[in-house]
Amino acid sequence: xxxxxxxxxxxxxxxxxxxxxxxxxxxxxxxxxWRLPGHHPLSGVKQGPDETIAxxxxxxxxxxxxxxxxxxxxxxxxxxxxxxGHGKVGGKDxxxxxxxxxxxxxxxxxxxxxxxxDQHGVDDYFWQANALKPLPDRLA
Length: 140
Hints:
The protein is α+β, with helices and mostly antiparallel strands and 140 residues long. It is built from 4 helices and 6 strands; from the N terminus they run H-H-E-E-H-E-E-E-E-H.
């Protein structure tokens, strides 16, 4: 089995370079599930690499920046990552202390569960950063 930490490092490297093709083919398992809690437009389970990559694009479009990344391993197949997400919308700064647990299968990221210390703040941020279309377009 590939070193789990190296796989997560490679995910960040590919994302940083905009190399979504390598991310899809070599880093993400075809059955990937990426779970983001909350009650906002980006929350829920992303099924597979394509939905997850689209989610990454939506995160970037929402203005979220990440720093303070730290990693640890649990056994041979899991990596725990902590980071701080930041965003500013409507003149207000938001800070999101976050923890993600990555589970590997076949040397690739197969399951991700994200946790946040301020779910209400995350929900508020993403509702403000991702305004709904006006009616009737929203219902199309």
